[in-house]
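Mods, move this if it's the wrong board.
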Amino acid sequence: MEYTIRSGGYTAVVTARAAALRKLTYQGRDLVVPFPEGGPIPDYRGVVAAPWPNRIEDGRYTFDGVAFRVEANETERACALHGLAFPLDWDLVAEDEHSVTLAAEIAGDGRYPSSLRLEATYSLEGEDGLAWAVRAANTGDAAAPYGVCPHPYLVAGESPLDAWELEVPAERFLEVTPDRLLPLGERSVEGHEFDFRKPRPIGATEIDHAFTAIDFEPDGTARVAVRDVERGTGVGMEWDRSCTWLQIHTADKKPPAPNRLGLAVEPMTCPPDAFNSGTDVIRLEPGAEHTARWRIYAL
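Not the wrong board. Structure tokens:
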């Protein structure tokens, strides 16, 4: 099952599985890397990653003195990747020509301390692009840790990713272990190949890292811009202060897998392995809610 919404030259297709953004176009041009209808979702494209973004080391964490274990679905790194919501078929809550809202329930069990209701809303607002919001409500009787991010792969244009120009308003990034991509510590982007505070080509740089110390505008939003300068096209993504972390991934693959098809841009409420470090984890008490918002638009 999937849902199509349209407005202002934009068309978005959202799947019931994972509440994933399968396709987003502007005047027929892809703004995200799509995936085929009815099949598996490759590389978590467009999914809602909740109740944690990124990974948990060994699929193990402790919350309020209780140990929990989740499947290490990232088998090559022995980590639990992208939460519990992506395998689920989400239920339709509301739909019209310009918007759709889907919901899913996460049970409180040996994997997670409490039950959780997630609602993802996609809406096309004229020429403003795709607004995307995820609301979480703790429906159980115990507190729970929470984090969330979207997982789109942005497409600037028809030129190769190496030629795209990238702008990322972040002053620091998280160094990670090369084998498992687990956090080692923050460092400044100053003088590093990850300094994209001023727009410049991505080139051969390989990125699969979280950024922070994000420069939010006076209106409370931060923005990433990716441009295909040669073709004169591009795509932007913005988010609010609910997400103080940002994962950027150049989608590097080993042959014969398709390499560097798009740029993953994932505003996150917390960094990798946050359920173990505790860094910026949201504590959802029973009855409490949290909402995060993003927007993707053509340049």
